[in-house]
Description:
This protein is mainly α. The chain has a single domain (27-155), classed as Tetracycline Repressor, domain 2. Helices cover 68% and strands 0% of the residues. The chain has 8 helices and no strands. The chain has helices at 2-8, 12-18, 22-43, 53-68, 70-74, 81-103, 113-128, 142-155. The relative contact order is 0.12.
Amino acid sequence: MEQVAEAAGLARITVHRRFANRQALLEALAVSAKRQLVDAIEEARPQAAPALVAPHRVTANVLRVKNTWRFTLRHATAHTPAAAALREEIDTHTVDLMNRAQREGLIAPDADLAWTRQVYYALLGEAVDRPGAEQDPAAQDPDAMATLVIDALLHGAGPRG
Length: 161
């Protein structure tokens, strides 16, 4: 709490007045981060963009948020009703994106979309946590990382042909 107050340029007592404890602060941060993830997904306009463009835009926007909120999104926080509702909204958007990709032929018709969604989330996490990313600004570029994520999701690591 002291570090948060210092970073925000506030007196420690001010932070304690707003948040009863560290957990309350983390919960508020989690809600804020998840709200920004929902906004990033919606800002990408996934239903209006062409089928292959939509996943890339969503992914790049989500990676921008994830890079900003690394600490908060990495740490498990209690699922407050607000955080749980936002998580459900994120999942709904992702399922819609996966369903559209499957309808448009980007994902195999027999693919397990629940598994595909989990793989997508894992790829997002790995993109943010790439070894050496902190030292290499090019490795932090959300558009470049989105290309890697979408290419791995849709094509894997096998040869093209």
